[in-house]
């Protein structure tokens, strides 16, 4: 009895101590709470928080900080079209199909359904003490890269080739994932990716881990950045920097992109996470840095907050080197603290440090949402709405069969109805996601088609760019 009493007393004392930290004071504004929390971390704790962005057993989770009552946190979570990679979940149409709905309501509803499943699963994972990859709340979605080259292997993850459409749909998905901006808590955190110009075809068929996108300033501003600006304006808490280099500088070491454009021009206050292994690949593929120490320093300085690793063995995580950098005075503790701030702001806004009773999302359970009737129905509606009739040639379909509202067709007016890629492989990519601009742009490209080879799975990899181009038919 006495032991129980002592235990209760010490628990009460622990709770009391927790409540005393201003970062747990729910009456204070988020930034003040983040200031307090980050101000309490030691330099070595800060390094661990920046280094453990997930990716395998050595990449994450971000470790617990017991003396402050802070638990582990897993940053690595996929949400492209449902709660991906974490067991049972409702499967929604692939992103390029979602884009073919031309319907922001559907994108927002799919985002919300995904967010509910991710949150419910997270509650369940945490209750079981599981902090492995894909158990967190911070989504690596949406993908808003531009479909530029028909053979790029990730076209299906995008919203197509139109920067405007990609931006509008991406913003809707962010809103669905995160919830209403006026709500106290985030349902989940969104993360727009991959920033930027991660679309080929420059340097194709080089590896996506090491290609250098040669992009003119005009193309960057018109094609590769607008949708990211919209995503940031929609409130996304995170942006993922991409594997490729842009005009010679790897995206995750690109201060012009991550600081000047993202933070200074667009006022982004969230965190930048590296694509998995990007900080290592800046050494291995780009040969931009000589070693992990210089990659760690260069990437942090350029504006990366979190290292998502692809590290296959212990302590090869690039940001772990920040400890060496600090001890040899090559970076300051203040820089580490500034980099950790948006990470903890996101965790605060997700409700991690608040009493669960205040957060309506903390009681969500998987059995309420995972493959629920409502989510299955939404998935079906999304799939049905994604079907696109390019052209009803010769009145092939009987009258009255086409029920799509006129608003959807407003989008297609941007597009000459029969622009399509001239290979069998890519004919399936509908014109609705190819604007007239793509035809004009391609026609003026200096590369000209010699003969169209029908690519097989085997030859697709090796087909040179100059043998593929879009053909505009009347
Ligand atoms: C929480 O913050 C409010 C507002 O500053 C303050 O009035 C209150 O005393 C704080 N609560 C605790 C327990 O420190
Ligand atoms: C967001 O919240 C505001 C204020 O509570 C409310 O008026 C608005 O309808 C909400 N929007 C959505 C999309 O739920
Ligand atoms: C960023 O903030 C500045 C200063 O508040 C403002 O003038 C500017 O319009 C903002 N930019 C964007 C893209 O919101
Ligand atoms: C840096 O110094 C701290 C404190 O002396 C020490 O704990 C840590 O192991 C050092 N880091 C490295 C990589 O040597």
TrEMBL record:
Official protein name in the record: Glycoside hydrolase family 3 N-terminal domain-containing protein
GO biological process per UniProt: arabinan catabolic process; xylan catabolic process
Gene3D superfamilies per record: Glycoside hydrolase, family 3, N-terminal domain
Annotated keywords: Hydrolase, Signal
Cleaved signal peptide residues: 1-17
Residue ranges of domain Glycoside hydrolase family 3 N-terminal in the record: 72-339
PROSITE patterns for this protein: PROKAR_LIPOPROTEIN
Record organism: Macrostomum lignano
PANTHER family: FIBRONECTIN TYPE III-LIKE DOMAIN-CONTAINING PROTEIN (PTHR42721:SF42), SUGAR HYDROLASE-RELATED (PTHR42721)
Molecular functions (GO terms): alpha-L-arabinofuranosidase activity; xylan 1,4-beta-xylosidase activity
Domain of life: Eukaryota
